[in-house]
Q: What sequence folds into this?
């Protein structure tokens, strides 16, 4: 297993895109922290990076990488290696490099400028979001053989989680504002990893006061250590479930 | 050594293999022939576990290969169209496969030398011609001294010199008692190599005969003529 992960990991590191991604993350984080003495604005910039850039880059890069390594996968399959091992090595190699890029680009400035619970929370959530979207990339690339279709699915799922889902939630909130749906809203956030990440971080930033009554309910739930634990578990679920489905599909795929 | 039992494969509605039953033993050199799209490559890929059968089973040394992978240590596979990561060099590919196999057996580097691949070790795969890619595939198939060799159109795309080298190597391995499975359209090339012949059509095995039988029953000297005669007599019926 390690041998294959190493080969994949080194192959990804050779790719200039990951290097560029790391540098861009670094420039954004260092400059936004450096602009003001107060680290709050820097944190908000990184929050936006976590919510938009990290998912987009993770899912797109991983999907394209998977399609481009179809030859490599085929070559490995004729060798005495388990299918599960090939797929798992690809996943570990890709996630390792995405997490490493996020850690070097955004994690180090976070630890330097905001070495408190908020900073560490953001670091962990950012790494988890990278993993979630790599896992979703595995799912979208196994769903179809067609490269352009697969990349399309990847972009659509990013759009859905990053933008559309929020719109739908907002629409529901307004439509059903006469009903006591605050508690149901907490459950609905579990359906989107980006929302889980957003709420966890916003609550740490103490901006929940601005979210009104719903914010108070969120605080009630996610503010407790049990709520925190559950939301972290849900994020982990978002890594495991898509990857597991893709693994089952890969095991039965004809190449 | 390899037993194929009642193998069926469907791609969607298209039936590619239907009820294939075959047995291959050690020391045999078998030619798998048939028109394009008759399921030769699918059959080979099922043996390798790259295609998962809809129904039926493949036994390797009396053990089912479904969900197994270690048996592939004993197979050397040369694909019809070798597809390799574009930006790796020949040297890196060979090095990588050696690492993945991690075998401590002595490597069979005959073809590596015969094809003079060492001189172009640092060439990237995407810059190689089709023939050179085939040479790399062939080298990889023979490298680990496998008990079974599966060669899908081995001489297609090779220049006469290289295909002669490959044929000599195949004959040499056959004499060592290995099982060799070849698909080919060039019947004339097979004459001095093979011991048995399987003719497939529309996903079914049409006949499976030894060469001696085939030549005797058709009273011909050459395999190509014998096959042509059989096909002609069938279309007349």
A:
């Amino acid at each position: 297993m390690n041998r294959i992960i190493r080969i994949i990991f080194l192959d990804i590191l050779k790719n200039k895109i990951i290097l560029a991604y790391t540098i861009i993350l670094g420039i954004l984080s260092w400059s936004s922290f450096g602009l003001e003495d107060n680290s709050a604005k820097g944190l908000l910039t990184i929050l936006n990076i976590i919510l938009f850039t990290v998912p987009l880059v993770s899912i797109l890069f991983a999907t394209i990488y998977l399609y481009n390594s179809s030859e490599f996968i085929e070559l490995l399959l004729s060798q005495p290696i388990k299918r599960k091992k090939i797929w798992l090595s690809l996943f570990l190699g890709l996630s390792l490099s995405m997490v490493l890029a996020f850690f070097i680009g955004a994690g180090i400035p976070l630890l330097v400028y905001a070495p408190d619970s908020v900073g560490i929370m953001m670091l962990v959530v950012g790494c988890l979001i990278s993993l979630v979207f790599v896992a979703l990339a595995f799912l979208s690339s196994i769903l179809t053989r067609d490269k352009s279709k697969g990349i399309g699915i990847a972009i659509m799922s990013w759009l859905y989680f990053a933008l559309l889902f929020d719109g739908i939630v907002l629409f529901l909130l307004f439509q059903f504002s006469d009903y006591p749906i605050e508690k149901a809203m907490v459950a609905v956030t579990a359906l989107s990893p980006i929302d889980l990440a957003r709420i966890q971080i916003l609550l740490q930033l103490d901006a929940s006061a601005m979210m009104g009554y719903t914010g108070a309910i969120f605080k009630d739930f996610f503010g407790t250590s049990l709520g925190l634990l559950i939301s972290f578990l849900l994020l982990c679920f978002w890594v495991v479930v898509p990857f597991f489905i893709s693994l089952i599909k890969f095991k039965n795929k004809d190449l | 050594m390899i037993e194929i039992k009642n193998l069926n494969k469907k791609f969607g509605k298209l039936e590619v293999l239907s009820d294939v039953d075959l047995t291959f033993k050690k020391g045999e050199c078998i030619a798998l022939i048939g028109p394009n799209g008759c399921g030769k490559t699918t059959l080979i890929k099922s043996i390798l576990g790259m295609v998962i059968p809809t129904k039926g089973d493949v036994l390797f040394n009396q053990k089912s290969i479904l969900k197994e992978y270690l048996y592939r240590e004993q197979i050397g596979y040369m694909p019809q169209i070798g597809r390799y990561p574009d930006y790796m060099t020949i040297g890196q590919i060979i090095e990588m496969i050696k690492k993945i196999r991690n075998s401590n057996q002595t490597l069979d580097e005959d073809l590596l030398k015969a094809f003079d691949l060492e001189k172009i070790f640092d060439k990237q795969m995407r810059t190689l011609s089709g023939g050179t890619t085939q040479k790399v595939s062939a080298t990889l198939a023979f490298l680990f001294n496998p008990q079974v060799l599966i060669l899908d159109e081995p001489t297609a795309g090779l220049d006469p010199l290289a295909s002669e080298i490959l044929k000599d190597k195949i004959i040499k391995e056959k004499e060592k008692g290995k099982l060799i499975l070849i698909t080919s359209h060039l019947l004339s090339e097979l004459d001095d190599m093979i011991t048995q012949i399987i003719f497939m059509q529309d996903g079914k095995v049409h006949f499976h005969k030894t060469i001696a039988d085939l030549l005797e029953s058709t009273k011909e000297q050459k395999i190509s003529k014998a096959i042509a005669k059989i096909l002609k007599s069938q279309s007349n019926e």
In short: The two ends of chain A are 21 Å apart (CA to CA). Chain A has one domain: 2-251. The mean pLDDT of chain A is 87.
